[in-house]
Amino acid sequence: MTFLDVFDQDLLSSVLRSLIPILLAALGGMLAERVGIFNIGLEGMILIGAFCGVAASFFTHNWLVGVIVAMVAGALFSLILGYGSVYRKGDPIVLAIAMNILAVGMTSFLLVAIFDVQGVFQDPGIDGIPTWRIPFLADLPVIGAFFSLTPLGYLALLLVPVLWVVLFRTPLGLRLRGVGERPLAAATMGVDPRRYQLGAVIASGALAGLGGAQLALGNVVQFTENMSAGRGWIAVVAVMLARAHPVGVLGAALLFGFADAIGFRLQSFGLPQQLTDAGPYVVTLLVLILMSKRFRKTREAALA
Predict the structure, then answer these.
(1) Which pTM value belongs to this model?
(2) What share of the chain is helix, strand, coil (3-state, %, to 5)?
């Protein structure tokens, strides 16, 4: 195998598998960012969604129930951030970090308490999310990968234009952006900022929960302790890089998904797994460095 063989038709499929959980969580983080809540709790929300999705799928033998439960679990878990920061005026950064720590400990505890296993829970009774192939289109060279996804994969890609329309072409989107940019002005227009902020945070948790469901029931069919493995943090960086714009979020998530997929493929060349797994995080650090430089230049120009 040569280096060019890494870039074959299957690579796009791997990129999309890596992309979908990050994209779903990042779209959720984007909604929270639009209303002025910086949500760095996406990591914990993904993990909670993954565990609850696997548990529900195992006990009901139905992947759809698992997906719904994962979404609801993520939304409920996000209430800690929503209620704490919006109504109790807590620091969202502190709350979100606590949520991430809580999610790791709680899922590890429940894994032992419910399934009596440690580390990995894998069972034939878990009903994984199926892949829906669109006839003819799925057989097209290269782009056929876009037509052979799980239902959550199609949903994630569809949400990008839908959220763009909602944010920039509807009164609801105007209110959401107004609450995040000028909350006092929005309040004078009869908009309750707290209600919109809480709703956006709950939607953020629901989307992150769906990302967890895709990760645990779509990409693999199992739950592993701390299986979110930094994807929530990568989603946060995607939101920052895209400046909370849906199309930009897709582009940033695609970048990280490609880094993850190409790292996995490079293992066939004998590179250590620890090195190839670091690919997305190296990209994340580079993005943060570039963003800090851009922010510093913008601030210096504003002060000049």
Answers:
(1) 0.90
(2) 75, 5, 20
Cα–Cα distance measured from residue 230 to residue 44, given in angstroms and rounded to the nearest whole number? 10
Instruction: Please give the Cα distance from 86 to 90 (Å, whole number).
Output: 7
Helices in 170-265 by DSSP H: which ranges?
Answer: 171-181, 183-188, 193-213, 231-242, 246-265
At a CB cut-off of 8 Å and minimum separation 6, what does 50 contact? 70, 107, 212, 213, 215, 216, 223, 227, 228
Q: Is 207 exposed, middle or buried (0-12, 13-18, 19+ CB in 10 A)?
A: buried
**Contact between 287 and 241 (Cβ < 8 Å):** yes
The tens digit of pLDDT for each residue in 94-127 reads: 999 999 999 999 999 999 999 999 999 999 999 9
**Nearest to residue 50, comparing CAs of 289, 175, 216, 169?**
216
The candidate with the shortest Cα–Cα distance to 4, out of 206, 233, 265, is: 265
Amino acid at 180: G
- Token readout for 221 is 């069919």
Nearest to 153 by CA among 136, 131, 126, 127: 131
Strand partners, 148: 133
| CA-closest candidate to residue 75, choices 267, 205, 207, 166 | 205
User: What is the spatial distance between Cα 53 and Cα 60, in angstroms, rounded to a whole number?
Assistant: 11
pLDDT range class, residue 141, cuts 50, 70, 90? confident
DSSP-derived 3-state class of residue 39: coil
Q: Is 1 helix (H, G, I), strand (E, B) or coil?
A: coil
Rounded Cα gap, residues 86 and 198, in angstroms: 7
230 phi, psi to nearest 5 deg: 90, 0
